[in-house]
Design brief:
single chain; 387 residues; alpha/beta; Enolase-like, domain 1; TIM Barrel; 2 domains; nine-stranded mixed sheet; four-stranded antiparallel sheet; globular; Enolase_C-like; Mandel_Rmase/mucon_lact_enz_CS; lyase; Mandelate racemase/muconate lactonizing enzyme family protein; Enolase-like_N
Length: 387
């Protein structure tokens, strides 16, 4: 153990921005605020690593405080044991929820710190940097209080003007409104563009069937979270629909993904690195998906830190089972909703370029954190400092 860098300090930056005009969201719920908690881990080598924990900061803070205290003085290169011990020892808390989201931010920061120590991008530690750029889809078409289709069209047209030829929209409202929103998006993305529809589980099997009957001819690239994640039998009943299904943003750790992947309930696997257990568990989930020959497309709806982490993960995803020609491209979820937290956490925000995104190539996550902005805007009463 001698000579190994240890964790000397963990500090958190809980963030909240109340959205104007009542906010926006999905058919199930409109979000009044954008939230996240940024995590900073400092090692005995003087290296700082950064991560992000998904979830309401006020609820995540106690988990981060408890886990930070446990980690002080421990080797900074031990990550998988930390996550699995969290699931094992904390089994009364279940293998999901905010204590895993808290651990995710710490895990990302530990990977970032080690990669920065070596002077390489995190992707090199995840198996090697295989790509410098990735295709992106505009994650948008959110539900607002007005649900005005004219406003919806303007929003989606703006993404087409940005150069996006792929977009994800929120549906699950009613068969007629689902049809209208999907038809507008198909028109704007073009016949060869990709249109992804996201129900956010706002369905019964019967309501889903009615909605899908109205949009099937519009060729959805995939159907996201058509049913609640716990409705295992419902997901099994969808196998004969003949449409690609995706899910996973509401699942945690390899154990939460094990049965859905093994039973192939969905075709596209969507772990969120800031929620599922950080890079450690996202890697395990990626490998499970590859074992069952399923597509990976991570969920990403956080700040610039979560974006950078997701891009590092995508950079290292092998192209198998595809060879030199053909294959389905990897896709990065680029949230286009208004979110100052996403824009301000990084000194240089990540930007789309004609429907693609460059993967940062600097050490660690490859980005520079705007620490001064974080300190000026965090919720001080919910911040954690363990040293």
């Amino acid at each position: 153990m001698s000579g190994r860098a240890t964790v000397t300090e963990i500090e958190t930056f809980p963030l909240e921005f109340v959205l104007p005009d009542g906010g926006y969201g999905a058919s199930k719920v409109i979000n009044a605020a954008r939230v996240a908690t940024i995590v900073k881990v400092t090692t005995s080598d003087g290296v700082a690593g950064w991560g992000e924990s998904f979830g309401p900061p006020r609820l995540t803070a106690p988990f981060l405080a408890e886990q930070a205290g446990d980690l002080l003085g421990r080797p900074a290169d031990i990550r998988e044991d930390h996550i699995l011990d969290r699931v094992s020892v904390g089994y009364h808390l279940s293998g999901s929820g905010l204590h895993i989201a808290a651990a995710s931010g710490i895990d990302i920061a530990l990977w970032d710190a080690q990669a920065r120590t070596f002077g390489v991008p995190v992707a090199q530690l995840l198996g090697g940097r295989l790509r410098d750029r990735v295709d992106a889809y505009a994650s948008s078409g959110y539900v607002t209080a007005t649900r005005d289709l004219g406003e919806f069209r303007e929003r989606m047209a703006a993404h087409a003007d940005e150069g996006f030829t792929a977009a994800k929209i929120k549906i699950g409202i009613s068969p007629a409104e689902d049809r209208a929103r999907t038809a507008i998006t198909r028109e704007l993305m073009g016949d060869d563009g990709l249109v992804i529809v996201d129900y956010n589980s706002n369905n019964t099997r019967a309501s889903l069937q009615r909605s899908l009957a109205r949009i099937r001819d519009l060729d959805p690239h995939w159907v996201e979270e058509p049913l609640p994640p716990d409705d295992a039998e419902g997901w099994r009943s969808l196998r004969d629909l003949g449409l690609p299904l995706s899910g996973g943003e509401a699942l945690y750790t390899r154990f939460g993904f094990r049965d859905p992947i093994a039973e192939q309930r969905f075709d596209i696997v969507q772990p969120d690195v800031a929620k599922c257990g950080g890079f450690t568990e996202a890697q395990a989930i990626r490998q499970l998906a590859a074992t069952w020959n399923l597509q990976l497309s991570p969920h990403c709806w956080g700040t610039g830190v979560a974006q950078a982490a997701t891009l590092q993960l995508l950079s290292a995803v092998p192209r198998a089972p595809f060879g030199m020609a053909g294959g389905t491209p990897l896709l990065f979820e680029f949230d286009r909703g208004f979110n100052p937290l996403r824009e301000r956490t990084l000194a240089t925000p990540i930007k789309p370029e004609n429907g693609t995104v460059a993967i940062p190539d600097g050490p660690g996550l490859g980005v520079t954190i705007d620490e001064n902005w974080l300190r000026a805007n965090r919720l001080e009463q919910h911040s954690v400092l363990a040293q």
